[in-house]
């Protein structure tokens, strides 16, 4: 990304892009050594908050240095939502009960039923597993503290 424009600022192995997404939100790139491997991360930070860049770095370190690679149910659902093509996801409309309208929906294939439309938040563990890529299907869930 350094070949595009000069950065807004550089602090060690972290830099912010000069072009803002909106207001004071811009891309921030991190180079972080984790478990003897150099890793690269891209995030969006609100630079009007003086602590946002360091707070994001802490979140990255916390997430990436967990002793066992895990995903919470919410992370699994967000992964499914973000990787499902627009033609196979949407929002509950007028045909749904009033309480469910506007909630996220995905199309599933069920043996015997064919394709069905279901609320993302109502997916069973088996349905979530089926929608995840193979390398993420058997990760343990985080345990609530």
TrEMBL record:
<protein>
    <recommendedName>
        <fullName>DUF1419 domain-containing protein</fullName>
    </recommendedName>
</protein>
<dbReference type="Pfam" id="PF07215">
    <property type="entry name" value="DUF1419"/>
</dbReference>
<dbReference type="InterPro" id="IPR009862">
    <property type="entry name" value="DUF1419"/>
</dbReference>
